[in-house]
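Q: What does the predicted 3D structure of EamA domain-containing protein look like?
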Amino acid sequence: MRTPHPILLVCLGVVFGCGIDALMKYVMQGATSVLTATTWRYALGSAIMLALFLQARRPFPSLPAIRFHALRSLAQVISAFCFFYSLTQIALAEAVVLGFTAALMIAPIARIILGEKMSPVTIGASLVGFCGAALAATAETSGAPADGNRLYGTASVLASAVLYALNIVLLRLRTREEDSLTLVTFMNIFPALFLLPFMLVFTDPLPADGAWTLLTGAAVFGIGIWWLMTMAYARAKAQTLAPFEYTGLIWSALLGYFFFQEIPGWRVWAGAGIIIAACLVVAFETHFAARREAKLPASDILT
C-alpha cells in the first residue's frame, strides 16, 4: 500500500490536533476538571503505547535516556495542562492562534540551549509575530466561555507555547538516537506519572459520565499526530510542510463554530495572518542561513 503524500499526512495530523483540543474542551465543559481530563488523556495514551512498545520488543532506554525523557516530559505536561486550561477561558480558535507563537519561540530557546545563532531577520520577524499575538489577544469572540478570564487564558496559552517550544528543542536531541515508537511511548508515560499524584490529591480522579469515550478519542488522536508527523517529515522538507500546519486555524474555527457556537472576530484572523507571515519569514531565513553555511546556492531553495 502506497503511503499518502507528506502534505496530506501533515494536514491530517493537524486535524487530529484540533480534534484533541475540541474533545478536551467538550469534556472540561462538563463536570470533569482540567487536571482529571489531562491525566486520563495521557494515562489512556500510555496504555495504548506501552502495549505497542512491548509487542514490538523495543530495547528499554538507558538510565540517562530515562532522565532526559523525564525532564522533557515535565515541560510537555505543563505545556499541555496550560493549553487545556486556556480552552476553558478563551475560544478554541483564539487558543490555537496564540499557540502559533511557539514556532517563534523555538529560535531563542535553541539559541540558549543548543547555541544556535539568531539572525537580525529572525529577531525582527519574531517581534512582529508577537505583535500579531497581541492583536489576537485583544479580540472578542462571539460564543467564547461566558465566565472565562481572557487574561488568564491568554497567559496560559503563551506559557504553553514557551514550554512546547522548549519540548521541541529538547526533542531534537533524541530523534537521532531513538525511534518514534520509543519517543511517543515515553511522551505519554511520563506525563501520566507526573499528573497522577496531583489528580489523586487535588481533584476527583474519575471523569464525568460519558467522558471516557471522548478521553480515549483524545488519547488516540494524540498518538496519531506523532505518527503522521513522523512519516511526513521523514519524506519531505520541513520548510515545505510547515506552512500546512497553519490549516489548524481553519479546523479550530469550524469546530469552535459547530460544537461551541464560537465565531472569531476579525482581530483573531488578522493576528493569525501576522503570526503566520512572521513564522514563514523565520523558516525561510533559517533555511537560507543553513545554505549559506554549507556554501550552497539559494537559487534552488524550493527544490
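A (community wiki): The C-alpha cells above were generated from the sequence. The mean pLDDT is 83. The longest helix spans residues 266-293.
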